């Protein structure tokens, strides 16, 4: 029986993954990148931008006005949503933000 000659695997020229399974430097596994918008988000934006021919107001304008009316009538949830969108979410000062650094001062005892 003749011996089989071992043929080394050939590397494709455009290979982006090295032999150890990692991406080669400067090469992306997703060259197109992440999509800039999502399909549902884009559809919602289009619907919110539609103008009512009768009132000449967009649906986004109507919803914002309704939320403001509900907040003015006392709805805390609507008020919170509006202030979060306009002012930014409130930061709770009672919870530590980021890393907490503890400094311990050793006491030198002579004896």
Provide the fold topology:
Layout: H1 39-49, H2 59-72, H3 76-87
Helix pairs in contact: 2-3
Q: Could you explain the architecture of this structure?
A:
- This protein is mostly helical and 111 residues long.
- The chain has a domain at 57-89.
- Helices cover 33% and strands 0% of the residues.
- It is built from three helices and no strands.
- The longest helix has 14 residues, at 59-72.
**SS class:** mainly alpha
Shape: flat
Contiguous runs where pLDDT drops below 50 for at least 5 residues: none
Reported for the largest beta sheet, the result is:
none
Number of E strands: 0
- Let me know the average pLDDT: 79
Relative strand content? under 5%
The Cα radius of gyration reads 30 Å
Share of helical residues:
25-40%
Supply the number of helical segments. Answer: 3
Please tag this protein with its features.
mainly alpha, 33% helix
Would you kindly provide a brief summary of this structure?
This protein has 111 residues and is an all-alpha fold. It has helices spanning 39-49, 59-72, 76-87. 0% of the residues are buried.
């Amino acid at each position: 029986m003749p011996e089989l000659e071992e043929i080394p695997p050939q590397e494709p020229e455009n290979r982006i993954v090295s032999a150890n399974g990692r991406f080669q430097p400067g090469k992306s596994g997703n060259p197109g990148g992440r999509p800039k918008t999502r399909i549902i988000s884009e559809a919602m934006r289009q619907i919110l931008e539609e103008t009512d021919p009768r009132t000449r107001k967009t649906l986004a304008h109507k919803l914002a006005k309704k939320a403001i009316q509900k907040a003015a009538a006392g709805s805390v949830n609507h008020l919170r949503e509006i202030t979060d969108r306009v002012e930014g979410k409130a930061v709770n000062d009672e919870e530590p933000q980021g890393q907490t650094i503890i400094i311990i001062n050793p006491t030198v005892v002579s004896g």
